[in-house]
Amino acid sequence: MDKTVQLYQFNGWANKKVFEHLKTLPSEIYRKETKSVFPSVSAVLVHMYQVDYVWLKAMNGEDFHDIVATLGQITDDLQGASLDEMEIKFKELSRKYESFIQNQEDITSQTTIHHPHFGTLHSNYADLIQHVVNHGTYHRGHISAILNQLGHKGASIDYIFYLYSLQHQ
Question: I need a labelling partner for 124 at 20 to 30 A (CA). Which of 29, 32, 114, 140 fits?
């Protein structure tokens, strides 16, 4: 399996595990405020979705100004979304990423991203997808930290557990 595909599949697997775990906890945990990097689990998920959305649009060649213009309504919808609704949104976005990846003749082909604050980036799709996966991993760690503060364990979502899950399929 191509490493980029596998990394992105890990990202979807880890998100799925987080949602499954959150559903086993008291429902108020989803929006419970804490003193952390993010004020709640729901706020972390909103941020993760926003960034995944932005990068997929950027990799599809859309202009950052146009992408950001759509974020207001998306953010409003996400902030009001239940845990189940967020899970559906993540699944839908994941399917769009998988379609994007499958439609690339060469995932290592070069692309140029023009970001209004960071400038122009010459990169390839594989590196940008790795960024999305790393970003998700980073923030799933925040979710685990918030859950720990609230007296609950996080989900077991290290990459090695994903590899074991592949072996047992």
Answer: 140
Let me know if domain 3-167 sits in CATH 1.20.120.450.
Answer: yes
Q: Where are the domains of the chain?
A: 3-167
What's the token pair of residue 100?
A: 């994007």
- Residue 141 corresponds to which tokens in the numbers above? 């760690």
What average pLDDT values come out for the chain (169 residues) when binned by 10 residues? 90 98 98 94 98 96 92 92 98 97 94 92 97 98 97 96 92
- How far apart CA 151 and CA 147 sit, in angstroms, is 6
Q: How many Cβ atoms from other residues are within 10 Å of residue 110's Cβ?
A: 10
Residues in the chain: 169
Q: What's CA 60's distance to the chain center, in Å? A: 17
Q: For residue 164, what are the CA distances in angstroms to 4, 12, 157, 159, 160?
A: 18, 15, 11, 9, 6
CA distance 6 to 13: 10
**Best CA proximity match to 141, nearest among 156, 125, 123, 160:** 156
Helix or strand run (H / E) with residue 24: none
Report the DSSP beta bridge partners of residue 123. Answer: 111
The model's pTM: 0.95
122 - beta bridge partners? 112
